[in-house]
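User: Structure with pyridoxal-5'-phosphate, tokens only please.
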Amino acid sequence: MLPDVVASSVLLNDFQRQWTEIGSDVHAAVELVGTSGWYILGQEVRDFEAAFASFWPAAHVVGVGSGLDAIEIALRVAGLRLGDRVLTTPLSAFATTLAIVRAGGIPVFCDTDAGGLMDLDEADAVLEAEPAIRFLIPVHLYGYSLDLDRLAALRDRHELTLIEDCAQSVGATWNGRRTGTVGQVAATSFYPTKNAGAMGDGGAVITSDLKFAERARQLRDYGQSAKYRHDELGWNSRLDELHAAILRRAILPRLGTWTEHRRQIASRYLSGIKHPEVRLLTPPAASQPCGHLFPVFVEHAQRESLQSWLKQHGVQSGQHYPLLITQQLALGTVPWVAWGDLPNAAAVAAGEISLPIHPHLRDSEAEQVITAVNSWPSK
Ligand SMILES: *Cc1c(COP(=O)(O)O)cnc(C)c1O
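Assistant:
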């Protein structure tokens, strides 16, 4: 017997329930790949790339080893050179910035809005003041799309190469338009916790530009243009046949239903959570998030109290992210620039709590989360 607290735990992600749903399709996918005798860059990868491209929608998808690699390869195909500055957000997975640094760029950080999303007015001001900045990597954080019309306007006005980090925003829309369709290139991740999560690492470079796609295909495969012909210095970063088969046969067919379920939980939380000390992130009317994460915000001094209250009531919670990227020790050794003190991003990092939201969360569990938050004695 499991102790009560474990038995009643509402998890941030529930991979065991996921396995119960997808297991037989995964077994079938493994069987097919095993029978084919072909494990790297074969028909399964090509078929998944085509399927994911029509889902996105985009002309070209290139499957790679991770979301980190996808961003780095995207920067390379988009022409980043050593020392180029790349405007981005200080509130994201560290991978967004790590990709910039690894590609030889210099990250420039501007503040977010009060909800943690990149502040596009602020970005506009930075680009106005620093016309030498040619690259922008916005992040559709928590699965909330940034204003895609404004992003497109920024891209045109400042003649930017725009690389959208869509690791968290698979399926999210702005006025019905999907994220990852405004930039010249987009990158996403198939890390297990992501909305289109594989059973291991994976990622994709997504673009409407055939030249970019062709170059990304070479770069993921040691920079080979043909077998044993290395035209440039690339990576070993190939989505493998097994994961391509699992993604296309077990994950993609369910992605629509799963996203719908995530959205239903989000709307349940948005209408059910009522607490004077807990701030919610209500999306603007044009935005339809994909329910990747459900962030709420409290004062920094209160965060531990709410998280331990949730834990006592069987509810797991997370923090996205406890530190700004500019506060990470790893950035101590490389050049970067912050535009101002980043007060909004710092406040989000200090007080954000992520509540459980995933495709296998039951309605009763969502109610358990709401009851736990609403009953929190904040004082
Ligand atoms: C997960 C994530 C990444 C990195 O993806 P990996 O596949 O884990 O390398 C990059 N950016 C954001 C916003 C992410 O959430």
